[in-house]
């Protein structure tokens, strides 16, 4: 075992420094990207076995379009992201490791423009860019499974299965406050880069504060566990001030969104 720990440490030092945010932010990530994607895929499969995917191709394509626009300007556009709408009145959205992102119709109905959608989208994409899920998993899995994931032996599929189990219980249970603040921060940078007016984040966070408590979910508690709502709103307002002068080309996308929202009724 001590040999394995030594190998893990060496691996960590030499192989695993990756970009996890704007401005070249780096983190030590032990679990290889291919394994992260396999874990995320397994988690997505479990989600889709229990949740009802919205039967509307136009909405699924639209969500994907907005998502891919933000991924393209993010610090993790080398992997394939997957976006899906879940048909449920829950006010929620969440991201699994490896780029599997889900939005509930309950949340989509609460939004009034594409910039608000982009704000939550960019927040969720930022959890994936920052590897928040995989970092928590790395800490919780224990050396044996982490070792198998890192070195990808024949035992790897068992290790991936174990990680999926841990991930379902852990990653979706909610991120830490600092993870949430980081995703809010990176998310606003990405949404502006993608051409959206960052005031969409301010109005979205205000809406989530008003809706507080009504969105019970087994996944990320978008409404309740995110940073204290008032602090979150004031931080978003401060970021908008720091981003001045805003380009006149930034959009709210109100017309397209009201058309899409009408389809949900
Ligand atoms: Zn979050």
Please explain how this structure is put together.
This protein has 265 residues and is mainly alpha-helical. The chain has one domain. 59% of the residues lie in helices and 9% in strands. Strands 3-5-4 form a three-stranded mixed β-sheet. Strand 4 and strand 5 form a beta hairpin. Helix 7 packs across helix 8. The protein is globular and about 60 Å long. The structure holds zinc ion.
Q: What is this structure, in a nutshell?
A:
This protein has 265 residues and is mostly helical. Helix content is 59%, strand content 9%.
Sequence-ordered SSE layout with sheet pairings:
Layout: H1 2-15, E1 17-21, E2 25-28, H2 33-50, H3 57-72, E3 82-86, E4 93-96, E5 100-104, H4 105-110, H5 114-129, H6 132-141, H7 143-151, H8 156-170, H9 177-193, H10 199-211, H11 229-242, H12 254-262
Parallel strand pairs: 3-5
Antiparallel strand pairs: 1-2, 4-5
Helix pairs in contact: 1-7, 2-8, 3-5, 5-9, 5-10, 6-8, 7-8, 10-11
This protein binds zinc ion.
Residues 123, 127, 175, 180, 183, 220, 226 line the site of zinc ion (ZN).
